[in-house]
Amino acid sequence: MKGNFIDNLPKVYGIYTGGFIGFIILMSIGEQMGMTSKAIGICFVAFTVFIYAIIGWLSRTAQADAYYVAGRQVPTVFNGMATAADWMSGASFVAMAGGIYFKGYGYMALLVGWTGGYVLVATLLAPYLRKFGCYTVPDFIGTRYGGNLTRFLAVVVLTVASFTYVTAQINATGTIASVALDIPFQYAVYVGLVSILLCSMLGGMRGVTWTQVAQYIVLIIAYLLPVFWISNKMGAGFFPHFMLADEVARIGELEQQFGFVKNSAADLATVPKGLAGITKAHSAVNATPWAFISLALAMMMGTASLPHVMMRYFTTPSVKAARKSVGWSLFFIFLLYSSAPMLATLSKLSLIDPNLATGIIGKSIAEVQAIDWYQNWNQANLMFVSDFNGNGTLELNEFFMGGKAVVLATPEIAGLPYVISGLVAAGGMAAAMSTADGLILAIANAISHDVYYKIIDPKAETAKRLVVARVLLVVIGFAGATIAAMEIQGILGSVIWAFDFAMSGLFFPLVLGVWWKRANKEGAIAGMALGLASGMGYLIWVRNGGSGFLGITQLTFGIFGSAVSLVSMVIVSLITSEPSASVQKMVDEVRVPSGKTIIGKS
Amino acid sequence: MSKQAQHWEKTRGLLMMTLAIWFVFSIGIFLFGAEMESVAGPFGYPLTYWFTCQGSLGIFVILIFWFANRQEKIDEEFGFSEREDD
Predict the structure, then answer these.
(1) Could you say which residues from 295 to 314 on chain A have a Cβ atom under 8 Å away from some Cβ of chain B?
(2) Which candidate, A566, A562, A85, A559, places its Cα nearest to that of A296?
(3) What are A202-230's pLDDT values in tens digits?
(4) Does any CB of chain B come closer than 8 Å to the CB of residue A514?
(5) Could you give the CA distance from residue A254 to residue A210 in angstroms, rounded to a whole number?
(6) How much is the pLDDT for A602?
(7) Which residue among A187, A238, A413, A559 has its CA within the 20 to 30 Å range from the CA of A314?
(8) Predicted model pTM
(9) Which of A594, A596, A601 to probe by mutation at the B interface, max B CB count within 10 Å?
(10) B15, B31, B57 ranked by CB distance to A123: nearest
(11) Bridge partner residues of A106 (DSSP)
(12) A352: distance to nearest CA of chain B, Å?
């Protein structure tokens, strides 16, 4: 191939996408010829992970610029894909459609929140932080406000938020690896971890960037193909996003017809842990405006404070490109997020509509228990039926499913070939790996760059810095995997907490650093320390039976944390002296897109 | 007023406008979730449902591209646009 790698990107990834589609076709031929479902699952996961590892190896580097910010030459569209993969975690891929399936409107606040946040990223932060020319988010805080304490506090907030998030992702890779490769979860977690480290260790941000683009392509194909296929197979519509109105209305009708019968506590106690029944309306408004808005707002502000997303915009060639790149990121995210409610609709209708061949409500319990896919997923502890009222027929309130099953089991329920299930497993793995990569790198880079290089040993040579960065990457990865192996919390809960932690400590120090010249070091210290402490305190209080106030729950505690952060930052800034003339000049320069970056002007 | 101050004033104006639109579609309309429910939205979905699963999301995508173009124009107007070889 002529020219350098960057110029050839469309061609390289075009060939890659073609190769992947060829692989899917090859697998489906294999299935026709009698390949077992287990072999197909192993092939999908092993083959894709192997490709990522090769990309990671090809991206190896010994330069700080390439390791920390991919040489600042990632084109807008590709950075958008990488950000989308970085962003969409195992939770988005595996759990989101399930959440919508069970909780309907109230849950969809997350869709609005996880997309609306990008408007804040594009307008308030990304272009300015790109102009700043920092390697990490704490780098910006430390340089803008000055002093090692601000830098250190930013690293603390970043680590608390990202670490909460990353254990959930390693957990997800472990879950998928254990199902696909048929090994126990405790070992599968480490298999997942090794795959994650293969992508990031040699090439740092450069390796992560190019594997994330590859992972995005896998995950989006794996998500969209089944949605379109199921929709067409059911005769629901050729393009589901525009054509499911009748199906949505039909679910509403069926809900009326069946009614939401409440199960007794004794009956519910017999249902395996983690499974839920349909108890809420599918499309009707079922949450108060404040419950919806507070959750969306917390997720939006959290999005704008999560360092692993922000640092993706440090890799673009210019400030202009950083802005456009945010738009592309959201476009690529939109492709998946707008499909999740459609998948939830198709999945629910195919299960509950007695007029469809796949519908199970209204059939006899014995008949349902004899269905192949029911037996498989029941064995995997993701499905359960029980004849509570003893009439021998399955009612809506007698059918239970795990949240993950909506994405993982629907292809099988709808009668798609197993190759699609293998593809979905590979997609889930890609989603979880790409997010875990970004997070582990964000933590390791912050500690190696900001704590080790900037605070402990400012004279360290590049080679030594990169060794430290890589050692930290492995240490943090193993710490995350060890905690993930203990299975303390669910995937989705800890993801939402990560957003709340990040917004409590970082949102206002970041935003005011650009938009309020008067913000000073003392204010930033107060904002970060009190914000994080109060957010965390509120969470602990509510978790231990505290009643909370203003309807702020353990999922939205960041609203309280960031409010404390804002108030304390403004008050402390105003009662202490204003920033020096040189800092004010620096802020002026950040606001102008042209010219050299602030850091590394030489 | 210096060129830089004028540039910043326009930038701030654009920010306010972008955030106002953002506010309407991320928060404002969901104050009326229950009221919008019986209204038919695009493609026949109930309006509230459509906004949560496509409408608001799509508007955010367009909004960011619109914002990026407007900001570029402002930068060019004051000669603060980056050179291509930067």
Answers:
(1) 296-297, 300
(2) A559
(3) 888 888 889 999 999 999 999 999 999 98
(4) no
(5) 46
(6) 35
(7) A559
(8) 0.91
(9) A594
(10) B15
(11) none
(12) 20
Q: Give A400's strand partners.
A: A384
What class is the A9-255+290-347+416-512 domain?
mainly alpha
User: Can you read off the two tokens belonging to residue A150?
Assistant: 């601000």
| Residues of A whose CB is below 8 A from B20 | none
Do the beta carbons of residue A358 and residue A112 sit within 8 Å? no
Give per-residue pLDDT as tens, A94-130.
Answer: 888 888 888 888 888 999 999 999 999 999 999 998 8
Q: Which residue has the tokens 């909370």?
A: A548
A434's tokens: 């790409």
Our CA angle for A468, A168, A103, nearest 5°, is 155
d(CA A347, CA A244): 12
Q: Which of residues 479-498 of A touch B (CB under 8 A)?
A: none
C-alpha to C-alpha distance for A100 and A591, rounded to whole angstroms: 40
SS (H, E, C) A508-570: HHHHHHHHCCCCCHHHHHHHHHHHHHHHHHHHHHHHCCCCCCCCCCCCCHHHHHHHHHHHHHH
Single out the residue of A60, A96, A205, A148 nearest to residue A454, CA to CA.
A148
pLDDT in tens, A329-341: 999 999 999 999 9
Indicate whether A30 pLDDT > 60. Answer: yes
- One-letter identity of residue A557: F
Q: Which residue type sits at A597? A: T
Partner A, chain B 34-63, Cβ-Cβ below 8 Å: 34, 37, 43-46, 48-49, 52-54, 56-58, 60-61, 63
Q: With beta carbons under 8 A apart, name residues in chain B contacting A245.
A: 43-45
pLDDT band at A488 (very low <50, low <70, confident <90, very high): low
* Beta strand A275-276 pairing with A383-385: unpaired
ipTM reported for the complex, 2 dp: 0.94
Chain A closest-CA separation from residue B49 CA (Å): 6
Q: How far apart are CA A31 and CA A47, in angstroms?
A: 16
- Does the beta carbon of A516 lie under 8 angstroms from any beta carbon of chain B? no
% of residues, chain A, pLDDT over 90: 20
Distances (CA, A) of A11 to A2, A4, A124, A325, A577: 11, 12, 34, 20, 55
DSSP collapsed to 3 states, A335-389: HHHCCHHHHHHHHHHHHHCCCCCCCCCCCEHHHHHCCHHHHHHHHCCCEEECCCC
- Dihedrals φ, ψ of A394, to 5°? -80, 125
* Residue appearing with tokens 């990008």: A118
Asked if the model's pLDDT at residue A463 lies above 90, the reply is: no
